[in-house]
Design brief:
By secondary structure, this protein is α+β, with helices and mostly antiparallel strands. The chain has a domain of 91 residues: 2-Layer Sandwich (60s Ribosomal Protein L30, Chain: A). It contains 7 helices and 4 strands, in the order αβαβαββαααα. It has a 4-stranded mixed β-sheet with strand order 1-4-2-3. The longest helix is centred in the N-terminal third of the chain and has 25 residues. It is flat and about 105 Å long. The termini are far apart.
Length: 230
């Protein structure tokens, strides 16, 4: 092969290599902000109104239960900045103190806001800051049409699926933290160990494998045979 032919061959090889690199770069996925379609956890400000009977500072049991459900029994790790807001006056101070007592009994740290003269209803407002799951903003179509030179995933990819998950969960707080485990029922396990140590487990297994039923069936058959012979 001549020198000029070798030189031409090298030029073609270099050109093919550059073309391959360009094609691979065009086929690779460009960065895309798909986090827009994710369930996110953000701090939110929530408020709950504790109702009182007119002229009374007595807290009804149902109102106390609603307050406990609002702050989230067993989920207090996500609660912060609990504030009690009440109106101005003697009855408002008594109501504020009653709500504060309930929160103290629940072990929740809180603070008293200055009296709010604009709050004239028979109620006390409890505000909390907590983390909450927020669904994605669907649909997400900033890029429309078939032309996609970046070869990036659809900006709406997975948006509906994650929104459906958020809507199907009975309590959205479960997307932030799970429920605490309740007390376990250990009585069956303890009884099984005690039966094993005392030898009762062998008798129970013997009746369970059909031996007890066989003897019962034999005696029943004998009785039946005796009855026919009489």
């Amino acid at each position: 092969m001549t020198k000029s032919a070798n030189h031409l061959r090298r030029r073609w090889m270099l050109a093919a290599a550059f073309a391959t690199v360009a094609l691979l770069a065009a086929c690779s996925h460009a960065p895309n902000d798909v986090t827009l379609n994710q369930l996110t956890v953000k701090p939110v400000q929530l408020s709950h109104t504790v109702q009182f009977a007119p002229g009374s500072a007595t807290l009804a049991p149902t109102e106390a239960a609603d307050l406990e459900a609002f702050v989230g029994q067993g989920r207090r790790d996500g609660i912060d900045n609990v504030t009690i807001v009440a109106g101005n006056g003697t009855i408002a101070d008594a109501r504020r103190a009653r709500v504060s007592q309930v929160l103290d009994n629940m072990g929740i740290a809180h603070r008293m806001a200055p009296p709010d003269a604009s709050l004239t209803a028979d109620a006390v407002v409890v505000t909390v800051s907590r983390e909450a799951a927020v669904p994605p903003a669907c649909p997400n179509w900033p890029i429309l049409g078939p032309y996609n030179p970046s070869n990036a995933p659809s900006t709406n990819l997975g948006c509906a699926t994650r929104t459906d998950l958020y809507l199907m969960v009975a309590d959205p707080r479960d997307l932030v933290s799970g429920h605490p485990q309740g007390p376990a029922d250990s009585a069956p396990s303890i009884a099984a160990v005690e039966n094993y140590r005392s030898g009762k487990a062998s008798a129970a297994l013997g009746s369970a494998d059909g031996s007890g039923g066989a003897s019962g069936g034999a005696s029943g058959g004998a009785s039946a045979g005796g009855g026919n012979g009489q």
